[in-house]
Design goal:
4 strands; Methane Monooxygenase Hydroxylase, Chain G, domain 1; 3 helices; two-stranded parallel ribbon; alpha+beta
Length: 95
Amino acid sequence: MTSYAGIIRTEAGLEDLLHLIRKRKQIIEDYYWKHVVTRDLIELRNIILNAELITVAALTRRESRGGHFRDDFPKQNKPLQQSVSQIHSSEMHYH
């Protein structure tokens, strides 16, 4: 994950990472439903879900701020400084 979503991020790198994560997520989900569920399997499932959420959030944020630096969006977007984003039914909403 650090190769694509490390200190310097780009849309292309994040898209590649999301594709890899979703392929692995499907493998994990298939395994999850066909085998005995263990604590390690639940943890693995949670790790891949968190990786997907972090990557989608990084793709959605089209600015650089704090520890999030987008090489393709190097400046801060001032109107987003006090904003909160929420996802409802797979749609992003800003407040």
